[in-house]
Design brief:
Elements: H1 2-5, H2 9-17, H3 27-58, E1 65-69, E2 74-75, E3 79-86, E4 92-101, E5 104-112, E6 126-133, E7 143-153, H4 157-160, E8 164-173, E9 180-182, E10 187-190, E11 194-201, E12 205-212, E13 215-218, E14 229-235, E15 246-252, E16 257-261, E17 264-267, E18 273-277, H5 280-286, H6 302-322, E19 345-348, E20 352-358, E21 361-368, E22 371-374, E23 380-382, E24 387-394, E25 400-405, E26 410-417, E27 419-420, E28 427-428, E29 433-436, E30 448-454, E31 457-459, H7 461-465, H8 467-482
Parallel strand pairs: 2-8, 10-17, 18-20
Antiparallel strand pairs: 1-3, 3-6, 4-5, 4-7, 7-8, 9-11, 11-14, 12-13, 12-15, 15-16, 19-22, 20-21, 22-30, 23-29, 24-25, 24-28, 25-26, 26-30, 27-29, 30-31
This protein binds zinc ion (ZN).
Length: about 475
């Protein structure tokens, strides 16, 4: 009886293979039926495959890429930065940028990206967005914040929200400009002369110092016990008069800037005229020295070649010199006053307004930015003070030259040498022989062209040969600060 009510295993198997049949009676008919069903199943499969493939592709698990480019670790009142995002597979769906400070989350950007349709993907695979954070406008206060950028793609994963990738960076918000103020007194500076100012900063700054007209003289910290106290050497060029604006300036790491006036007095100076007659004999003797540099004017008249030397080569020599000036040490390497070439007579002064004539006609004007000292031929040249050699080479119109760095932007220069006896990076003491006088470069006869620089400006060496000037303008200020 049981057999009549229940399927045997064999009947169950037959039912699975042939659900509409009963018992297999006609093998040919069954074969046709199976073929029909098989064909139907294959057709279904062929039709369903792309849909399945599409589904699989839309379920991809590759997360998008994200990278934040923050220009600096400290942000000011308005700081632009960029976020680049990409997704190779289903494309970009959404980007959100949040600024988190303590418990608060501020939304900076919430951007959706287009898709071509339900079954299709995102249109944008790769993009870079520029955003600007203005903390005050968003109610964010100064201090640390976390920038969190989240990107999603068009994958159907994560309940159709897409794969997501997060990038986070901590930055410091600083919207307050630094406070800068002078704490030294008696800032008297002569036209073509140097000055020193001691000042205090309210916070560490990426740049601080003295603005003189359009020139900037950077200050240095770490000279005094108090780390907020800085010192800057500055100068007034020979062509900068009484109306030149001189003030302190600072910009902090966030780029907040401030300026502050300080009491100073500019002593105007009249520099004497000096006429230099350029003779054909001088041109014949001197121009061949510059052969290698004269190719742009090779077919010009000798006097035009001279003008090229006196203007263009003078400027390019200064450019080359400017490259070694930033090598200045942060401390003061020198002491006492600077020594002058012993037993020498002054041939030309600092600031002389030189008028060059050829056959009685004025052809050029230049300031003479050093002091010419003549002694016996090939006199030994002593280092004017302690320091480090930063340049020792031939330098166009200056001929064989040595530059010694004395720290804090102060440098001495020795030009037209017949022989150099110093090497770059060599430490020298006052009086060490660094070369011998000569007439290399644009020099008429054997002499030393002695120059001094405060950062990029040639200054009057007379001040640095004068112990009283150094006492009043440098030493006393430093001493007063130390005794505070
Ligand atoms: Zn000279």
């Amino acid at each position: 009886m049981l057999k009549n009510h229940c399927l045997t295993y064999f009947e169950l198997l037959l039912f699975l293979v042939n659900p509409f049949g009963g018992t297999i009676r006609n093998p040919l008919k069954d074969k046709q039926k199976r073929f029909k069903w098989g064909l139907l199943a294959t057709l279904c499969l062929i039709l369903a495959a792309p849909v399945g493939w599409g589904l699989l592709k839309r379920l991809e698990g590759e997360t998008p890429a994200i990278h934040m480019t923050l220009p600096k670790p400290v942000f000011g009142p308005s700081q632009p930065f960029s976020v680049s995002i990409s997704d190779r597979k289903t494309g970009l769906r959404h980007l959100r940028i949040e600024i988190i400070q303590g418990e608060k989350t501020h939304l900076l950007l919430d951007r959706g990206f287009p898709s071509t349709g339900f079954f299709k993907k995102g249109v944008i695979r790769e993009t870079e967005l520029a955003v600007t954070l203005e903390p005050r406008e968003m109610g964010i206060t100064d201090g640390n914040v976390l920038i969190r950028s989240t990107v999603w793609d068009y994958s159907w994963r994560n309940s159709s929200n897409g794969n997501q990738r997060v990038a986070e960076e901590t930055v410091l918000i600083d919207t307050v400009p630094p406070d800068i103020r002078a704490i030294s007194n008696a800032h008297n500076v002569s036209q073509g002369g140097a000055g020193l100012v001691i000042y205090r900063l309210s916070e560490p700054c990426s740049r601080s110092g003295v603005h003189v007209g359009t020139d900037f003289y950077p200050g240095a910290g770490g000279y005094f016990e108090d780390p907020s106290v800085y010192l800057a050497m500055f100068a007034l060029r020979v062509d900068q008069g009484r109306d030149t604006g001189i003030y302190l300036g600072a910009s902090d790491r966030a780029g907040n800037t401030s300026r502050a006036a300080f009491r100073h007095y500019i002593r105007p100076k009249r520099f004497p005229r000096d006429t230099i007659r350029i003779t054909d004999g001088f041109l014949k003797r001197k121009l061949p020295q510059f052969d290698a540099e004269l190719s742009p004017v090779a077919d010009k008249a000798p006097v035009d070649q001279f003008l090229y030397v006196n203007r263009t080569l003078r400027a390019s020599a200064y450019e080359r010199l400017s490259a070694v000036i930033p090598d200045t040490r942060p401390g003061m390497l020198w002491s006492g006053s600077f020594v002058r070439l012993p037993g020498s007579a002054r041939q030309a002064g600092f600031g002389d307004r030189r008028i060059y004539t050829h056959n009685g006609t004025e052809v050029d004007r230049q300031f003479h930015l050093g002091v010419d000292l003549a002694s016996v031929k090939h006199s030994p040249v002593p280092a004017a003070n302690h320091g480090k050699v930063v340049f020792a080479d031939a330098l166009s119109i200056y001929g064989n030259s040595v530059v010694i760095d004395h720290g804090l932007g102060l440098q001495s220069m020795y030009a037209h040498l017949s022989r150099i006896e110093a090497e770059p990076n060599q430490t020298v003491d006052r009086g060490d022989i660094i070369g011998y006088t000569g007439s290399t470069g644009l020099a008429g006869g054997d002499h030393l062209h002695y120059a001094m620089l405060v950062h990029h400006t040639f200054v009057n060496p007379l001040e640095w040969w004068d112990a009283k000037w150094i006492e009043n303008n440098v030493r006393n200020k430093i001493r007063a600060q130390r005794e505070r």
